[in-house]
C-alpha cells in the first residue's frame, strides 16, 4: 500500500508538471480558453502598473483568450534567450531595438507579422514611420512598436538664473553648451554643483555627438569607421567636458544612482536624457524647476537616437493568432492614450500627447531625424565595446585616438564572427 501510494503521488507530480508545461506553452485548458504569456522588463513601476491594467482589460474583453503578464526582473535578455532555447518563451515579449537585428539573425526566433497586418485594422501607416522601419527587414515587419524616446537636454532653471544665463533653446550649438557647462559649475561652497552629469560608460551619449561632428560608425564597406578624424574630434570634445573643463561629473561621484538622480538633486545643471526622466522627476523631485529642449547642434548638424521597444511573437508561439490579438489591443489608440512614461508610437496619439504636455515637444521633434539605437546583428556587443572606449577616455586610461582605434579593430573582429 505504501509503495502504491508513493507511485500514485509520483504520477500526480508528473501529470501536474506536464499540465503546467502545456499551459505555459499556451495550450487550452478544460474551459477551452487559450492561455498566453506576455513578458517585458520589470524596471519601471509606472509601466508595470499600466501593463497589468491593460492585460486585465484585455482579458475582460475576451471569451477565448486569457493572458498572464510576467514581467522579468533583473537580466531580461539572458533570461529570455534561455526561455527561447528551452521553448518556454512567452507568446508575446518586449524586444528592444538594440536587440532586434541580433535576434533577427537567428531566423528561428521571430515571426513576421505581415499576414496579420494584411487583414487587421492595425495599419503600419498609423505609427511613426521610423519606428516601423526600425523593426522591419527585407520588406517584412517583425514588431509593432509600443512607444519611443529620444534624448533631450534637461536643464535646471534656477541654476541658469543664478549664473545669469539664458535658458537653452533649439538654436544652441555644442560650443554654446560647453561654455554654459563651465559657467554653471560651482565646485566650492555648501552646495557644489557641476554643469553637466554624464554616465561613465554609455555609448548612447557620445555617439550623437560623434554624428554632430560628421562621424559614422560604419563605412560603406561595413568596416567600423568611428576612429575617423571626426570621431576622434567628437570624443575629444566629450571628454574635455570632464577632464579639461572640470564641468562634468559621474553620478557616483556625488552619491547619485544615475544622471537623472544627480540632476534631480541639483548636483548637475544639465543632463542628456529621454522623457523617462520627466515622470521620475515629478515623483521624486516635484519641486524641481526644469526645462527640456533638443540636443545642441554640432558642426555637421543635428543628431539623436530613437530608443524604442516592440511587441514581437516568437516562432515557437503555439497560438500566434491569439498573440496577435493581444498586440493589436496593446497598441490600439485607446491603450496608447494611457501611456505616461514615454511617447506613444502612433502618430496621432503622440501628437495629441504632446499637445497636452508641450514639455515633450523636444522629444517628438527629434524623431524626425533620430536614428534607431541599433548597430547591426551583433549590436549589443558593439554597444558594449563602444561604451568601454568612452570609459577609457573619460577615466584617462587612453587618449581618444587610441581608444577609438582599439574599439574599431575590436568591432570589426566582433562583426566577422
Describe this structure in words.
- β4 and β5 (140-141) form a beta hairpin.
- This protein has helices at 2-24, 45-61, 76-85, 97-105, 114-118, 129-134, 157-163, 174-184, 203-212, 229-243, 259-264, 277-284, 320-330, 333-336, 347-356, 361-366, 379-394, 400-416; strands at 34-39, 65-69, 92-96, 136-137, 140-141, 144-149, 152-156, 194-197, 248-249, 268-273, 290-293, 305-312, 343-344, 371-372.
- The longest helix is centred in the N-terminal third of the chain and has 23 residues, at 2-24.
- Strands 1, 2, 3, 6, 12, 13 and 14 form a 7-stranded mixed beta sheet that branches.
- The chain is built from 18 helices and 14 strands.
- With 417 residues, the protein is of the alpha/beta class.
- α9 crosses α10 and α17 runs antiparallel to α18 (400-416).
Amino acid at each position: 500500500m505504501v509503495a502504491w501510494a508513493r507511485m500514485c503521488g509520483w504520477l500526480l507530480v508528473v501529470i501536474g508538471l506536464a499540465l503546467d508545461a502545456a499551459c505555459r506553452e499556451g495550450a487550452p485548458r478544460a474551459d477551452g480558453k487559450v492561455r498566453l504569456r506576455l513578458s517585458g522588463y520589470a524596471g519601471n513601476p509606472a509601466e508595470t502598473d499600466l501593463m497589468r491594467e491593460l492585460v486585465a482589460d484585455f482579458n475582460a474583453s475576451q471569451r477565448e483568450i486569457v493572458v498572464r503578464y510576467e514581467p522579468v526582473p533583473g537580466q531580461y535578455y539572458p533570461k529570455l534567450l534561455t526561455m527561447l532555447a528551452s521553448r518556454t518563451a512567452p507568446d508575446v515579449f518586449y524586444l528592444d531595438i538594440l536587440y532586434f537585428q541580433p535576434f533577427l539573425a537567428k531566423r528561428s526566433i521571430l515571426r513576421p507579422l505581415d499576414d496579420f497586418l494584411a487583414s487587421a485594422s492595425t495599419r503600419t501607416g498609423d505609427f511613426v514611420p521610423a519606428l516601423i522601419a526600425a523593426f522591419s527587414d527585407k520588406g517584412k515587419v517583425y514588431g509593432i512598436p509600443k512607444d519611443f524616446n529620444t534624448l533631450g537636454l534637461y536643464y535646471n532653471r534656477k541654476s541658469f538664473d543664478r549664473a545669469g544665463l539664458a535658458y537653452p533653446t533649439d538654436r544652441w550649438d555644442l560650443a554654446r553648451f560647453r561654455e554654459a557647462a563651465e559657467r554653471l559649475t560651482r565646485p566650492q561652497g555648501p552646495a557644489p554643483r557641476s554643469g553637466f552629469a554624464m554616465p561613465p560608460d554609455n555609448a548612447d551619449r557620445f555617439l550623437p555627438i560623434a554624428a554632430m561632428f560628421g562621424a559614422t560608425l560604419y563605412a560603406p564597406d561595413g568596416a567600423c569607421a568611428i576612429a575617423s578624424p571626426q570621431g576622434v574630434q567628437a570624443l575629444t570634445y566629450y571628454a574635455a567636458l570632464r577632464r579639461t573643463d572640470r564641468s562634468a561629473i559621474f553620478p557616483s561621484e556625488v552619491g547619485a544612482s544615475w544622471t537623472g538622480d544627480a540632476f534631480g538633486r541639483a548636483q548637475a545643471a544639465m543632463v542628456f536624457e529621454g522623457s523617462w526622466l520627466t515622470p521620475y522627476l515629478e515623483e521624486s523631485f516635484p519641486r524641481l524647476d526644469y526645462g527640456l529642449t533638443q540636443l545642441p547642434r554640432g558642426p555637421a548638424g543635428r543628431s539623436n537616437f530613437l530608443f524604442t521597444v516592440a511587441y514581437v511573437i516568437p516562432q515557437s508561439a503555439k497560438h500566434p493568432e491569439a498573440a496577435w490579438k493581444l498586440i493589436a489591443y496593446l497598441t490600439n489608440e485607446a491603450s496608447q492614450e494611457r501611456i505616461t512614461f514615454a511617447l506613444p508610437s502612433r502618430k496621432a496619439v503622440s501628437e495629441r500627447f504632446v499637445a497636452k504636455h508641450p514639455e515633450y515637444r523636444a522629444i517628438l521633434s527629434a524623431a524626425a531625424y533620430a536614428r534607431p539605437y541599433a548597430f547591426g546583428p551583433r549590436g549589443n556587443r558593439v554597444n558594449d565595446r563602444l561604451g568601454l572606449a568612452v570609459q577609457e577616455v573619460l577615466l584617462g586610461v587612453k587618449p581618444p585616438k587610441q581608444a577609438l582605434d582599439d574599439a574599431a579593430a575590436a568591432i570589426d573582429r566582433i562583426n566577422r564572427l
